[in-house]
User: Fold this.
Amino acid sequence: MTDGVGSVPQTLPEIQAEITALRRRIAELECAKQRLEPPTPPTTEGRPRTVLSLVNSDELTATLSAFVRRVTGVLRAEKCVILLYDDAGRALVAQQPALGFTAEELADYRVSIDQGIAGDVFRESRAIICHACEEDPRCQEEALGRFAVKDSLSVPMVMEHRNAQQQVVERATIGVVHVFNKRYGAKFTEEDVQLLSVFARNATAILSSARPLLQLADEKRRLEFTLESMTSGLLVIATDGHIQLINAAAQASLRLASRAVIGQPFTAVVDDAALRDFLAQALAQGGDLAHEITMGERICQLQTAAVRDHRGQVTGLMCVMHDVTDLRNLERLKSDFVSTVSHELRTPLTAIKGFIRTLLDDPAGAYFDQDTRMEFYGIIDAECDRLTRLISDLLNVSRIERGQPLHLQYGEVDVPACVARAVHLQRSYADRHTLEVELPDALPPVIADRDKLDQILTNLLGNAVKYSPEGGVITTRVRREGEALLFAVSDQGIGIPHDQLEKIFDRFHRVYSGDSQRVGGTGIGLFLVKSLVEAHHGAIWVESTLGKGSTFYFTLPLSPPGAEAAPRASS
Assistant:
């Protein structure tokens, strides 16, 4: 006879046979448990600190699915759910699998151990039958009405720990088994309590026995995820030279197509001779070694350590490979930057010092007339401005690197006047160049920081002069595009190699291409320009043809978001 749930045992002998089969399965899991962990020592607490994290094993899920189907079949109930204790939240949490519940209902099913029928069953470790759940305050605390529960039977799940002599040394309640809604108008009885208690004990034993296996599987998965998430390469080699483990980063560094190299000698897998020699030396010495090698275009820092078993015996070698190419390049760039800045600072200071000394040597004006002296003063003033701009650039870059925002003093800026100032400033340094300006007749003002816009244009024009050492035409154009202005600074210089276009706005980066080796500069100008444009909510990009010149474009919104024009002169 069946009740619509499936074929289930209906007589006591059938139930006993089912229990025998479950106990056989428990014994198999218990053997696995004993191989994986020693007997659990007694604790002073009345319940375990944590309960199993269910359910992460397909086999265990299938076993518990069979359990809830058997329970509902034997007891003729509509619903069955297991609630396990969560020590962190001091609550009972519904678990998959269950019968008669949706995934959404289970996700929201959580009850404090101080509330509801489940809380009473858990705290008092006793079974409870409720024949009229809609009238029971405990059911209301547990909000069982949302599951259309009419009556219920609940028993505790008690875990027993035994010593080597099979004596019970600890009992702890780990959860509750709920069955709801007895079918065919019948009521739950004491006989149902005894049957459900037997099932609960067996389910608890299954969970207890499966615990070390689940923990081991979880730890293995976490370790695998950790190793695969490492940006550094990891290679583990046995003492006989065969590869035992390799992660994705190491596979990429060694340019291997697959993980099929596991089990092969590292000498047959590693192509780089320097790396092979280093690994062979580390294996022979069996200790910690550190070395830095160049593999192709990448610089790799190697660190090895011995792998030991639980007895302390060396079983292999672990090698961690850090790609330090970018770090070494940055160190080189910073070193070049310090040297370049020293030169850039010395140049205007040398000119200032020279002209000041010349004027001091002629206090009465015997050698230099007033016009010549005024020319000297003008050069000194220009070199001081040049020095001020360089120091200002350095300070702004320092702020950006420290993560400090660039403070903008917004005002209404007369763009033609701003362009004219920047072009005029460059004429003294551009004796081989023709500086042209193309502006429409009507150009609206822009809400911006005038000094920062001057700095942007000055840097771009100065860059155009430096990178067109043979002269040529340098053109500054501005036009309106919607609610923004588009600026363009073009030169007829050496251009930018295609492979450097993406790096051109990086700090310390300088273009190297043929004659550009003799071009000066700190390598921070374009980095700062990009930061200033973006601080105005604009965008910047470059188009270039090697040997024919470059054009730098940037946009500024007519009125940046949240910006208000300051009441100050801006022309």
Observations:
- DSSP finds 14 helices and 18 strands in the chain.
